[in-house]
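User: I'm designing a mutation panel for Ribose-5-phosphate isomerase A and want to avoid disrupting the core. Could you give me a predicted structure to guide residue selection? Please restate the sequence first so the numbering is unambiguous.

Assistant: Good idea. Sequence first, for numbering, then the predicted structure tokens:
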Amino acid sequence: MDINQKKKAAAEAALAYVKPGMIVGVGTGSTVNFFIEALAAARVQVDGYVASSIATEQRLRSQGLNVLDLNQTGDIPIYVDGADEIDIYFRMIKGGGAALTREKIVASAARQFVCIVDDSKEVNMLGKFPLPVEVLPFARSFVARQLVKLGGNPTLRQGVSTDNGNVILDVVGLDFTNPVELEREINNIPGVLDNGVFAKRRADVLLVGGNDGVQTHKPQQ
Ligand SMILES: O=C[C@H](O)[C@H](O)[C@H](O)COP(=O)(O)O
């Protein structure tokens, strides 16, 4: 199985969590794009979808799927999204597609987070994937210096402006021994909107596409 077949298999397995009458949060990225295709084909009679990015909103609309404003919904029963890395506690690094802030908002508004990945995304320890940090352009240089003080080595993602009009710093070299603390510490830097550590809001269910099909996992406590 190639990587896209694995992503597609995981994405299609997430359909089992989508029930009629639900509002469904939809993440961003190549794995989620397979999920959107599956949603369009299945036509489950949901109440609507909340998108975590402009790209996802456009893709849902192009399939004729009903997109709702997050401000017009209460708690969302389910959120389906991919990840750049996920560990055994279902803590993640996200934001490879620069959508991390809205993703974290929709994920946090959701009662259940179903993470869909191919098996290359599973890691013992987070931190190999450069951590995306969304930063107000005004504060870019200041924030970069604070990230260096935390032990990181930030690089500006060239040519990228987020859906919120901000820049992304991709950071390597950080210590992920305590991801909850790292997530909090980076978000305490003035000028940081959010960062791609999802440790406070972890996934609840993990669907992994691999050579033997899709495995469903629950997090280790
Ligand atoms: O900003 C993007 C998101 O966090 C994506 O969910 C993440 O990068 C995984 O994307 P993909 O499914 O394309 O590997």
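For picking mutation sites, this is relevant: Residues 27-31, 81-84, 94-100, 103 surround ribose-5-phosphate (CB under 6 Å). The longest strand covers residues 110-118.
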